[in-house]
Structures are given as C-alpha cells and as structure tokens.
C-alpha cells in the first residue's frame, strides 16, 4: 500500500483528529496526501505557510434544518449541508446529493475531491458539495417539490453565480434543479441563470450536460486504452448503477463498440449476454423511475436479475463503477482481476476502496480515479455557466466537442504528470498532483487567506 510522507504525517493526523468520525473524508484526504510527498520533495514552497493544511480545511461548512410537509400533512425534518471547500480557482462548484446516507463527512469528502477535479478541468471553478439526508425514494412529485423549495429557502442566501454554483448528484436531476431554481428566482426576484447548473434546456440549461459525466468517463477510458494500443471494440463492459452517470457511460461505450453485459441499482443487478438494451433501461429509470429488476420481464430472452450480490462477479474487460462511494472493495477487485479486467474507471466519486485500487495497480490494470474520469460533468456545468454569462445556447455537437477536448486534456495532464514524477501509468498520482499544483499556485498567489 502507499504511504504518507513523514513530513505530511502531522497534517494527516490533524485531519483525522479534527474530523473525527468521518471515514470517507479521511480516506479521500489520505489518498491525496499519499501523492504529495513527491511534489514537496521537488517544490518545498508548496508546504510553506501551511498551504497543505489550508487545502485540507474547508473554507466554510453550512448545516441547516429543512422542514417540509408530506402528503399526509405531517411535518418532516431533514438536515441540509453545503461544504464550500475551496474558492482559489473560482466560485465553489459541485453537486447536491439527496440520499439517506448523507452526513457532513460524506459531503466534506465530496467537496474535497471536487476541488482537485475542478482544477483538472482547467476551467475557473472552485470546489464545493451539498446535500441532505432526505430520501427521494417513494416520495410523490409534490413531496419532492416541497422538499426542494424548503431546501432552497435556506440555501439561497449562501449561493450565487459568483459565489457558489450547485448542480445535481445522486437523487438530484433536472426535476429537482427546476424546483430549486424556481424557488431561488422567487426569493431573489432575479433570473440569475448561472446560479445552478443542470437546468432544463428551456430556461438556461446546456445541451449535453445530462450526458456529460458518463460520456466524459468513456472518453477518458478511450484515451487510456489508446496508450496501450487498444480500444472499446468488442470488449465486455460492466457498469454499476443505472442512474445519470451509468446510463450515459453505457451509451457512449456502446457507440464505441463496447458490449455492456450488466448494470445495477441499489437492489441488485441484471445480466444480459445479448448486450443491455439501453432504451429499455432509460424507460425504466428516467421515465418510470422504477427498479432495474423490471428489466427482465420487459426484455424477455436470455437475461437475468440477481438480487443483492456483487455485479463485479460478472466477467468483463472494462469495469465502470458509476453508483456510489466504496461500492467496489478488495474482494471484488480480486475477482475482476482473476476474470481478466484490463481497465477500471471511476464514473462515481471514490467507488473503489483503497485496497481495490492497490490491487488493480499491482496487477497492472489501467485505473482511472474519479476526480479525473468523471470530471466531464462539472466541466460541462462550467460550459453551462459560460453560455449563461454570454446569454447563448450552444449546439449539442459544439458542447460535446468541448467536453471531448477537455477530457483528452485531463487524460494527458494525468498521464504526463505521472511520468514527470517517476510513476508512469499511475493516474491516481498524476491526477492528485496535477490538480493540487493548480490550486496551490492560486493559493500562493493570494497570500494567507
Ligand atoms: N451526476 C453527475 O453529473 C455526477 C455524478 N458523479 C457521481 O456519480 C455517482 C452516481 O451519480 P448519479 O448517476 O448522478 O446519481 P443517480 O441518482 O442518477 O444514480 C445513482 C445510481 O446508483 C445506484 N446506487 C446508489 N446507491 C447504491 C448502492 N449502495 N449500491 C448499488 N447501486 C447504488 C442507484 O440505484 C442509481 O442507479 C455518484 O458517486 C456521484 O457523486 C460524479 C460526477 C458528476
Ligand atoms: O456539475 C457540477 O457542478 C457538479 C458535478 C458533481 O457533483 C461532481 O462532479 O461530483
């Protein structure tokens, strides 16, 4: 396993102590600190003036009550969060997650990762993340609307196009962004299009934002495969999840000749040896908001559903974890390696445990960390902000071309940085260092703030 340089150990100890009981944040911080030993050996100036300590401490954390009234006229209370992690490169930028597992540690790890991811895009965006422990599963459309409105009644005073620009994440898509944007507009009496991204096309959204994270992940994998002289053509792919990221990763992988044989949701996974029928998955998930288990009866033929279990037991050459954090552990990684996986890319944020990452890297499996591989979503959000600022609306092709170019550049930056620091092929190290250096340069220029 990798280790944290002894000069950085006290910083890690402070992070662990100051953020007790937040294992996901510890995991994310440790991984970045493991990469930084080589940077400070070459650039000791980056550890001056407690720069790394400051990078590990969020600029602001907001926790608030979200009361709302359910369909039975009962008052419900949830907790809302926004962690404004780092604004050295631009306004805080990052999604909002609605899921019962949300707590301050989860939002903090996501905001931390977002800071380096956003830096990798090369666009002027800082890092932040928000969310609530609200569970959208089984809620009526009216309940979702009332919850989103109440959430925004507090959040609106903390955000703005030059301050903090939230977007979607797990449990938050165009419907929820619409309800939140509507309430923001009413509270502020201002049509501030750039305050949220992931908006509907008719009121300032960007073409290709919905597709961007999944498409971007597959663009990244294509570049990674090209380094080894190969491509998607005819390769078996397994994609976990069947939400926004998973669906559009599957779409782009299929368009590059990949064969998707399995996908999942939190209940279980489906295997379809004829190749997943993506239009059917979209109908079940995007239109009906149903369960992936419904696929089997609707599709018929040679496919089956496995309740619970591990989707990583399905043999594949390319694995794309696109559901949630720590969904792929060391045991799963071992099975994937034994079954001949050649590339793994994190469409989700931190879906692979440190043990899994270590196993992939030791087995020389190409491994793309989320902060690089899934940066296409936030990059396209930044393109949405550009369109809003210039009161313009780009074509799908123009937006997708920009996305492709950005992902190609991110791949190159990670690859070249790993080479430069003597760790050829280590995309984790490359992404951490390339992202860190941009944030660090901006922070140094701005003094101790
Ligand atoms: N939406 C975006 O633009 C971006 C999302 N991400 C990350 O991608 C991941 C997925 O997000 P979205 O697709 O937006 O969310 P989503 O809400 O559209 O879909 C989430 C999917 O994951 C599944 N899932 C959730 N918990 C699970 C579990 N414990 N086991 C198996 N499946 C589970 C859900 O059933 C659903 O299919 C998250 O880690 C998110 O932070 C990263 C970058 C951008
Ligand atoms: O589009 C955005 O601003 C945020 C996307 C996001 O939440 C992520 O990259 O994890």
TrEMBL record:
This protein's record includes keyword NAD: yes
Binding of NAD(+), residues: 213, 244
UniProtKB keywords: NAD, Nucleotide-binding, Oxidoreductase
SMART domains named among the record's database cross-references: ELFV_dehydrog
PROSITE patterns (alphabetical): GLFV_DEHYDROGENASE
Amino acids binding substrate: 93, 114, 117, 168, 381
Domain of life: Bacteria
Family of the protein in this entry: Belongs to the Glu/Leu/Phe/Val dehydrogenases family.
Name of this chain's protein: Glutamate dehydrogenase
